Amino acid sequence: MRVAVLRLLLVAGLPVLLATVWWFASADSTDVYWPPLSTILEAGREVWTAERIATDVVPSVTRLLLGYAAAAVIGVTLGVAIGSFPRARATTEPVLEFLRAVPPPVLVPVIMLFAGIGDTMKVAVIASGCVWPMLLNTVEGVRAVDGVLAETARSYGITGPARLRHLVLPSAGPQIFAGLRQALSIGVILMVISEMFAASNGLGFAVVQFQRGFAIPEMWSGILLLGLLGVLLAVVFRAVERRALSWYHGLRRSRRR
């Protein structure tokens, strides 16, 4: 119990400290672009009502989850296929490195030509950026499967779906989740960027509208809400990861003792 309380204090200590410093540093500010934190929080309380959350936050999160899920299916599936065959890796590696180097925001006008300006475009933009860390980390994870375990599975006749389920995915799991974790932050960024183009709702749209209307406290409140959304998603992801890789984290703890 004491360890859990200490850990909670350590986790919450820095955010509380930063918020306190911001509160007092901006308390007497008269700069229109740097309003006091109290003004920002008051504006956020007035702006982000249940109705506004339903019209802006919920659509943004829905697009993010759809794009992220599509990227996970594509990235992990292709990563397993490419990582399992050396010739496939050698053939596709130059193309993958080229495509990964193209910044996803640059593709927004291209995606708009094919997907229009609706939600499909925004989901496609998110998926186009999230897929690369998932794909490349999956490839590396599959490549790193222990050779002795692979030969043992082959000698026992464990092939096909059984080999994939009991050997490849568990062995590559930590690397796959590393790619999923990287892609989550990229997805939040692309969610905001995609909503800055031909959008009528969403967090990114709302922040831009506040900025264009010189509603600076409201704009800052939207930025804070984006940060809190990122923290919430990271906490949920960490809980899922710990459950899915409980064997891996248990093994690491046992090695530390």
Q: Topology of this protein?
A:
Blueprint: H1 2-25, H2 37-47, H3 50-84, H4 86-101, H5 108-115, H6 119-143, H7 147-155, H8 160-194, H9 203-212, H10 216-244, H11 246-256
Helix pairs in contact: 2-10, 3-4, 3-6, 3-8, 5-6, 6-8, 8-10, 9-10
* CATH fold name: MetI-like fold
Question: What would you call the shape?
Answer: globular
Main sheet record: none
Reading off the top of the CATH hierarchy, the class is best stated as: Mainly Alpha
Tally of separate helices: 11
Structurally, how many domains make up the residues? 1
CATH architecture: Orthogonal Bundle
The tally of beta strands, per DSSP, is 0
Helix and strand element order: HHHHHHHHHHH
Mean residue pLDDT? 86
CATH superfamily: MetI-like
Helix content: over 70%
Poorly predicted parts: none
How much of the sequence lies in strands comes to under 5%
For the CA atoms, what is the radius of gyration? 22 Å
What do you see in this structure?
The structure is a single chain. The chain has 257 residues and is mainly alpha-helical. The protein has a single domain (55-256), classed as Orthogonal Bundle (MetI-like fold), CATH 1.10.3720.10. Helices cover 83% and strands 0% of the residues. The protein contains eleven helices and no strands. The protein has helices at 2-25, 37-47, 50-84, 86-101, 108-115, 119-143, 147-155, 160-194, 203-212, 216-244, 246-256. Helix 3 runs parallel beside helix 6 and helix 6 packs across helix 8. The radius of gyration is 22 Å and the shape is globular. The model has no long low-confidence stretch (mean pLDDT 86).
